[in-house]
TrEMBL record:
Keywords: Carboxypeptidase, Hydrolase, Protease. This is CBPC6 carboxypeptidase. The lineage of its organism: Eukaryota, Metazoa, Chordata, Craniata, Vertebrata. It comes from the Eukaryota. PANTHER family: CYTOSOLIC CARBOXYPEPTIDASE (PTHR12756), CYTOSOLIC CARBOXYPEPTIDASE 6 (PTHR12756:SF9). It comes from Alca torda. The active site is at E193 (proton donor/acceptor). Residues 1-230 form the Peptidase M14 domain.
Length: 247
């Protein structure tokens, strides 16, 4: 049978994910890889997510900066995560292309762009955590906190206490801030941060160093959290219980 999100006339719920806008933040690539690997797998949860949501993923927004070994800027010397408001097709081509795609989807009545998540790595904080936006509408602000709270339940290395919501003027040109102001009140925009170093378990003295696998596990848990957010758990196929042996 056709997937629910591909049936004629069905509204497509879109989750847009980007990563590596800052070339030196390599953990973001491993988190993004974990998301991708899980979504294209044959895992029962992944199948349900593919049937009900459309995922758009741009895993590397700054490929020239990565190639050159830059820490934060592009080939042209720009911090791309400060130019979302008016990206140049010549100086910021990846940002320009992604922004045009997002605006095109936003203007399509058959598409509901519900999430934008930009993945970064943090050089001083521990754990994974999120930055969100501040809205005058209290109900919208409260709804925005739902996804990070669910992720905190699914990922032992994600910290809701480190998650914060702000509208710092310095961050006005970031993807989270710009798209948070552009999209409608049913859309939620986040920056997902993960530590370069470690995450804390069982009290402040127990720090567990991050590994590539741990970063990818966080990515898998991000993907799985959409199952909880959209309340699709009942659709996951459960493995058959083993037949009891008779004597």
């Amino acid at each position: 049978s056709a997937a629910a999100n591909l049936r004629p006339g069905a509204e497509q719920k879109v989750v847009f994910i980007t990563a590596r806008v800052h070339p030196g933040e390599t953990p973001s690539s491993f988190v993004c890889q974990g998301i991708i690997d899980f979504l294209v797998s044959q895992h029962p949860v992944a199948k349900v997510l593919r049937d009900h949501l459309v995922f758009k993923i741009a895993p590397m927004l700054n490929p020239d900066g990565v190639y050159l070994g830059n820490y934060r800027c592009s080939l042209m010397g720009f911090d791309l995560n400060r130019h979302w408001a008016n990206p140049s097709p010549w100086a910021h081509p990846t940002l320009h292309g992604v922004k045009q795609l997002i605006i095109e989807m936003y203007n399509n009545p058959k598409i509901n762009l519900e999430f934008y998540i930009d993945i970064h790595a943090h050089s001083t904080m521990m754990n994974g955590f999120m930055y969100g936006n501040i809205f005058e509408d209290e109900e919208r602000f409260q709804r925005q906190a739902v996804f990070p709270k669910l992720l905190c339940q699914n990922a032992e290395d994600f910290s809701y206490s480190s998650t914060s919501f702000n509208r710092d003027a310095v961050k006005a040109g970031t993807g989270r801030r710009f798209l948070g102001g552009l999209l409608n009140d049913t859309s939620y925009c986040y920056t997902l941060e993960v530590s370069f170093y470690s995450y804390i378990l069982d009290g402040p003295t127990t720090a567990v160093p991050y590994t590539e696998e741990a970063y990818m596990k966080l990515g898998r848990n991000v993907a799985r959290t959409f199952l909880d957010y959209y309340r699709l758990n009942s659709l996951v196929e459960r493995p058959l219980a083993p037949t009891p042996k008779t004597r």
